[in-house]
Amino acid sequence: MKSFPRRLLLLFAGITGCAACASALTIVVEYKPWGVPDARRQEYDETIAAWDRRDALRERFENAARPIVATGPVRHSAGLQDPKTTSDHQFEIRNEGTQPLKLEVRFTSSDCEAALGNAGLDKTGLDRAVVASGEATRLNVSWTNADEPGDFEHTVVVRTNDPLQEELEFLVSGTIKADLAVPASVVFPESDPAHRTDLNFLVYSQTWDEFEIVDAKSDLEIFDWHAAPADLSDADVDGLHATCVWRVRLWTTAMEYGRYSGNVTLSVRRGDSPAVVRSVAVKGRVRPPIIFHSPQLHMADGLDLGTLFAGEEHQFHVLVRLRGDIARKIEVLDIRPAELKATLTPQSQPGNYRLTLTIPKDCPMTIFNVPEKHGYVEVGDPGDEHFSSWFPVKGAVVPRPVGQ
């Protein structure tokens, strides 16, 4: 055989072999679905399998003689409900197919009962467990409301013999009214020490036509209160669906700086009934007596000096302002690291000072910008341990590199 035909045959053989290998690899290699994490791969595979089964059923039964289940709305909002009462609702189920539709209640949530047809027709309640072609029945759902207020949901699942819709899910939801609604907690506005602060909140009922707040007690050191009926047309009452509302106002005076908390116990009486007691958690905060201002001062990190070279003097300035008692005389109480120096100079505006933080020229190498070692400056009244405040300082003083 001549060389050219032989080469042509070898070329075709090579192309055929490559194609066969590529085909084999295509069959053997299975690629992961794009965008599906390995942890959810099983969930993905089960979802795809369910879709495949549904498509197969649809191909098999879509044009076959069968029952076809149809419904009206499958969700019902019952709105506001009185506590400890029983309610019900009916859902319509139709058969739009050519074969009888068979129904069976398979699952109901707690405090919920369901029967097919009109409740009470017979002991089983399954008056229309089989629905003829073109006819309809009703699913009667009844439930008992809980004692406590809040939202609720009840679910009923009905099994059918429609091969394309084997289950129906019906949902009823609503909100149980509150006999007495009292906030779990309230917060006083921030205040200065020894300054009175107050707040107000609503206590209301969605079922009682009248009640009265007869007493309030608290473990706060300084406490006062007042309560009076509120108008149902008030803007902050609208939307509460209240039948009776009282507005409660509380006062307190905190003497020390920082956060404080306590409890207020309300006594509520309805007519001649014994008083009902409700507790409200209260908390608040007294602002620091001294505040600091500087463009370089960060709320959380404090004053970041960066990396400074030894052998030079460096200065930073911070405005110090007093809150409330501006006649106080304050000074620098402490500074760390001790190699830093700080001076406090009164300004023309009463209660304002200029704090000058100095890194002296002869300051040795000092590192104070690591988590286990930060600096700080504390300013306050040396005669009153409560009248003080501080801010963090971080940085490093290092020798200047040779040649710079």
Structure report:
By secondary structure, this protein is mainly beta. It folds into three domains: 69-176, Immunoglobulins (Immunoglobulin-like); 185-286, Immunoglobulin-like (Sandwich); 290-398, Immunoglobulin-like. Helix content is 12%, strand content 47%. The protein contains two helices and 27 strands. It has helices at 3-28, 41-61, and strands spanning 69-71, 75-81, 86-95, 101-108, 112-116, 130-131, 136-144, 150-160, 167-176, 185-187, 196-205, 212-218, 223-229, 244-253, 258-269, 276-286, 290-293, 297-298, 302-309, 314-322, 331-336, 341-346, 352-359, 366-367, 369-370, 373-380, 388-398. Strands 18, 19, 21, 24, 25, 26 and 27 form a seven-stranded mixed β-sheet that branches. The termini are far apart. The model is unreliable at 117-126 (pLDDT under 50).
Can you describe this structure in just a few lines?
By secondary structure, the chain is mostly beta strands. 12% of the residues lie in helices and 47% in strands.
